[in-house]
């Protein structure tokens, strides 16, 4: 490990601790409900994948912060250390969150070549980060039309938010990340292909989110979304 790796790890842990402190501070000082602070931490943690891409040049080191939080998040869930992450219906979703990011980055992020597919991983993670969070927030606030699949109860309003948010973030990732300084080895998609891929992937993400048992969507959504994007990219020659 280099000095830059140690610096990157230090910044990553400081960022994670700051998120938890901010969430807990908002809950205690301003009586912000845990439903909101949990989603704030959820979004902040997901967005840190861009910090990881900036700070690390070796995927084996870059996944350490998220891998560490597999165990830490389990302890937070099991012993309720952080009130800002505990809602009445808390699940081990934060554990699944860390697992999915670690798996996707471990499988697809190759900053030293020959081919870097981290944009696919980030697309899946952003669908979880923004799509899932907005689906929950809007569903709780505006969800008047409910439906049930198995034991999962969702709202059409929440699912619509999931689809729109996922389409937007996936298309932005596929358009802007490949070929950028964060992923210079990846090949960018055209606007049309990025939008088409985003719509198809967002459709699957929305369907998976709707049927996933409580908390498991933090595992199923990013993995399925990334899988769909990967399949489409691997088979573009069949359609164009």
Could you describe the 3D structure shown?
The protein starts with a helix and ends in a 6-residue tail after the last helix. The mean pLDDT is 93. The chain has nine helices and two strands; from the N terminus they run H-H-H-H-H-H-E-E-H-H-H. A two-stranded antiparallel ribbon has the order 1-2. The chain is mostly helical and 240 residues long.
Topology (SSEs and partners):
Layout: H1 3-30, H2 34-55, H3 59-62, H4 64-79, H5 93-108, H6 118-142, E1 146-149, E2 152-155, H7 156-176, H8 191-211, H9 217-234
Antiparallel strand pairs: 1-2
Helix pairs in contact: 1-2, 2-6, 4-5, 5-6, 5-9, 6-7, 6-8, 6-9, 7-8, 8-9
Largest sheet composition: 2 strands, antiparallel
**End-to-end gap:** 44 Å
Number of strands: 2
Radius of gyration: 18 Å
Query: SSE order, as H and E?
Result: HHHHHHEEHHH
Mean pLDDT: 93
- Structural class, by secondary structure, is mainly alpha
């Amino acid at each position: 490990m280099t000095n830059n790796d140690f610096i990157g790890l230090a910044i990553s842990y400081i960022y994670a601790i700051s998120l938890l402190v901010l969430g807990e501070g908002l809950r205690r000082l301003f009586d912000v409900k845990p439903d909101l602070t949990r989603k704030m931490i959820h979004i902040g943690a997901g967005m840190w994948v861009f910090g990881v891409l900036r700070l690390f040049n070796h995927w084996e080191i870059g996944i350490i912060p998220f891998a560490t939080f597999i165990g830490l998040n389990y302890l937070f869930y099991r012993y309720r250390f952080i009130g800002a992450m505990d809602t009445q219906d808390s699940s081990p979703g934060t554990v699944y969150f860390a697992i999915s990011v670690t798996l996707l980055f471990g499988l697809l992020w190759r900053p030293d070549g020959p081919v870097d597919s981290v944009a696919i991983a980030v697309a899946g993670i952003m669908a979880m980060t923004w799509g899932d969070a907005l689906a929950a927030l809007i569903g709780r606030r505006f969800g008047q039309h409910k439906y049930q699949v198995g034991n999962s109860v969702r709202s059409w309003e929440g699912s619509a938010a999931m689809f729109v948010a996922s389409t937007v973030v996936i298309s932005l990732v596929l358009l802007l990340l490949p070929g950028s300084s964060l992923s210079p080895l990846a090949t960018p998609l055209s606007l049309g292909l990025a939008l088409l891929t985003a719509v198809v992937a967002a459709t699957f993400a929305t369907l998976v989110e709707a049927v996933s048992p409580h908390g498991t969507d933090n595992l199923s959504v990013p993995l399925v979304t990334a899988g769909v994007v990967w399949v489409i990219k691997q088979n573009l020659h069949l359609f164009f």
